[in-house]
Prior knowledge:
The structure is a single chain. By secondary structure, the protein is an alpha+beta fold. The protein folds into two domains: 1-112, L-fuculose-1-phosphate Aldolase (3-Layer(aba) Sandwich); 114-271, 3-Layer(aba) Sandwich (L-fuculose-1-phosphate Aldolase), CATH 3.40.225. Helices cover 44% and strands 16% of the residues. It has helices spanning 3-17, 34-44, 76-79, 83-86, 114-127, 141-149, 154-164, 168-171, 187-197, 217-240, 250-260; strands at 27-31, 52-54, 66-70, 87-92, 98-104, 134-138, 177-179, 202-205, 209-214. Helix 5 (114-127) packs parallel to helix 9 and helix 6 (141-149) packs across helix 10. Zinc ion (ZN) binds at residues 25-26, 137, 139, 184, 208-209.
Amino acid sequence: MPKVIDDFVRMCSDGYRLGFNEANGGNASYRMTEEETDICKNELGFDRKSPLVKMNTEVKALAGEYFITTGAGRLMRNVELDPEGSLGIVQIDEAGSSYRILWGLKDAGPTSEFETHLLSHCVRKEASHGQDRVMYHLHPESLIAMTYISPLEDEFFSRAIWRSMTEAVMVIPEGIGVLKWLVPGSSDLARMTCKKLEDYRAVVWAHHGLFVTGSSFDDAFGRAHTIEKSASIYMKILSSGREILQDISDDSLKKICDKLGLKINEELLNG
Ligand code: 2HA
Ligand code: ZN
């Protein structure tokens, strides 16, 4: 398999093994580079006769682009056993209103959250000046647990995650967006996720999961992994029932960012 497919498969397998993607939970997509598209075209062969599928969404900013996507109803656990049956490469047409499956996705369409993924790619492509290519949705347990006992506010989640583990602010210095519960796969979920992605690279879906983006599989997966680890430490602290004697101060968070040349989102910090 071409390296980009192997890297995509590895993210799916890691997500399953870390408990982020049970059963058919979660989905992922990747906006391919021209070089990767050429390699896949040569090595896998693209079926250009497959029919154009009209979408409910228009994504002009992605016209002509190629994506790797997980399939609807496919299990992350099975991706490594059968990449061609679980994943696919699709191309968006020149109008940005239809797609065509060029490889894989045997007897399946793209993920049920495909609309959310494509609209998110539009937002992040612009916001990151073309850098962000990965969208990954997962069901991480500690973060989901947090959404039952925490105010569903960007400020609360960002600060709780930043303060529970030193590494966290390094992967999301801009903070985390938080959404109330919305119907999975709905246009409302897509629209509101995109609004948050204008400012954030990680969006919490209350009682459901997390949606992250990044420039590479390592970047996006690492962001999700770090947020969930910090959330699990936060929940362990709360579950201990003990008084918190000390934690990472706002001043310390700023110092971490200063040292790395990162800009912390000061609007989320209490003075
Ligand atoms: O089943 O996780 O949000 C895939 C999902 C939908
Ligand atoms: Zn989900």
